[in-house]
């Protein structure tokens, strides 16, 4: 890799040109596909080839640019379970790569950031520091090191120019939201991009991430099921935490045993639903690159740059809505949805239509064990995005209040990972224990 390609591309014109190549490339392949069909290739062969080439380009562009492009790709990755099987394989591979891989920056740049953030004598704080990063993601890369007291630590170093790149990418990606919606139909792309933009400043300041991680580590300290590495030191663009060894969740998804998949899905649900009560926070970046399974079976959670403050815990209205949908209490369900702002006062909508829209989404809570599958995710995505179906029209009449946006997306992302895992477990018991309003 050249020195130039190892750095975070910063110039706005260059980044814009790379991002613009995505829709142009897709359009060119579609036109080329028509030509191939005229020469005798089947529609299936052409569609498969177009999907594969588009996926390759998606990873190459988003992965190389890092910044907002990379972060957007990571956020999309949890929704690949909803992509129809005919198109899923190439995107599954490309988006999975985006969860934990990106070209690293040069050691000289890494040292410069460490000089600025930890002081010129930063080397004295480490007994050992490995210049070769072990992971490189959207706005920073991770190095393995040994702290001066002998502890193995992970050192996350932010790319120079990450703030400039992140802001520019997200502005540009908004222009192409319809393209990405077609690639990953299970994702609601416009709100996703808006949300990434809103939490951008928090993620760029690693001190905020360190504070979030300290809160989670304290809340789950000694927990038999979840491990959160403790923070050792932090600065605006560097954070040092305990080093944890484990199996990345992406590997469990790719080739884990049935028991490993089921256990991972259950642990993920336990962490998701218990965090608001225990930490008063919601881990808001659910993609497989942020989770590992430890040798002792615990779920290790990393990367707390995005966390939503819930000082009063999860809203009881969420549990009430789940329960009413399970009980088919149409009228009361509509009343609560209106009270919470999901249905605007001026909107006329039938209570039974609202129930029909929501009932399949609470299907995992109807039984003591539910099997989260890609097929189930695909059915839900198809039902909600098919313009010919009544559920699509009902969805257009509903409103997502701002205070519910993050809870909605994180829950959807968590379910997406569970479908990738093909996990089967008792999610109802977890919701009953941790979600206020559900069992009342």
TrEMBL record:
GO terms for molecular function: ATP binding; protein kinase activity. Keywords: ATP-binding, Kinase, Nucleotide-binding, Transferase, Ubiquinone. InterPro entries: ABC1_dom (IPR004147), ADCK3_dom (IPR034646), Atypical_kinase_ADCK (IPR051409), Kinase-like_dom_sf (IPR011009), Prot_kinase_dom (IPR000719). Belongs to the protein kinase superfamily. ADCK protein kinase family. Residues 128-440 form the Protein kinase domain. This is Putative unusual protein kinase regulating ubiquinone biosynthesis (AarF/ABC1/UbiB family). It comes from Tamaricihabitans halophyticus. SUPFAM superfamilies: Protein kinase-like (PK-like) (SSF56112). The lineage of its organism: Bacteria, Bacillati, Actinomycetota, Actinomycetes, Pseudonocardiales. The keyword Transcription regulation does not apply.
């Amino acid at each position: 890799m050249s020195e130039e390609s190892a750095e975070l591309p910063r110039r706005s014109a260059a980044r814009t040109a790379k991002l613009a190549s995505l829709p142009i490339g897709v359009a060119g392949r579609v036109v080329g596909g028509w030509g191939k069909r005229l020469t005798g290739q089947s529609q299936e062969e052409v569609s498969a080839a177009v999907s594969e080439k588009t996926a390759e380009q998606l990873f190459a562009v988003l992965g190389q640019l890092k910044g907002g492009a990379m972060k957007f790709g990571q956020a999309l990755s949890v929704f690949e379970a909803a992509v129809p099987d005919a198109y899923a394989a190439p995107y599954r591979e490309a988006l999975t790569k985006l969860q934990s891989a990106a070209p690293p920056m040069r050691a000289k740049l890494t040292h410069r950031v460490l000089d600025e953030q930890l002081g010129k004598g930063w080397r004295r704080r480490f007994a050992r520091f490995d210049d070769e990063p072990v992971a490189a993601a959207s706005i920073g890369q991770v190095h393995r090191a040994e702290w001066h007291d002998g502890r193995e630590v992970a050192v996350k170093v932010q790319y120079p120019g990450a703030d400039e790149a992140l802001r520019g990418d997200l502005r540009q990606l908004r222009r192409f939201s319809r393209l990405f919606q077609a690639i990953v139909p299970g994702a609601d792309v416009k709100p996703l991009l808006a949300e990434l933009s809103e939490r951008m400043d928090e993620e760029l300041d690693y001190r905020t991430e360190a504070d979030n991680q300290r809160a989670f580590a304290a809340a789950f300290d000694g927990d038999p099921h979840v491990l959160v590495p403790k923070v050792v030191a932090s600065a605006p663009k560097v954070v040092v935490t305990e080093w944890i060894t484990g199996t990345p969740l992406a590997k469990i998804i790719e080739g884990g045993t049935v028991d490993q998949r089921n256990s991972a899905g259950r642990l993920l649900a336990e962490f998701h639903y218990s965090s608001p009560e225990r930490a008063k926070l919601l881990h808001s970046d659910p993609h497989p690159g942020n989770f590992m399974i430890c040798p002792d079976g615990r779920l290790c959670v990393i990367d707390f740059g995005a966390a939503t403050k819930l000082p009063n815990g999860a809203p009881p209205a969420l549990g009430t809505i789940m329960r009413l949908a399970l009980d088919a209490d149409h009228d009361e369900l509509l009343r609560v949805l209106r009270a919470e702002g999901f249905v605007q006062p001026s909107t006329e909508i039938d209570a039974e239509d609202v129930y029909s829209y929501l009932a399949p989404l609470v299907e995992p809570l109807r039984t003591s064990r539910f099997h989260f599958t890609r097929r189930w995710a695909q059915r839900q995505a198809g039902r909600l995005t098919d313009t010919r179906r009544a559920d699509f029209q009902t969805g257009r009449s509903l409103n997502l209040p701002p205070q519910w946006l993050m809870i909605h997306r994180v829950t959807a992302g968590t379910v997406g990972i569970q479908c990738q895992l093909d996990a089967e477990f008792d999610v109802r018991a977890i919701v009953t224990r941790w979600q206020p309003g559900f069992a009342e």
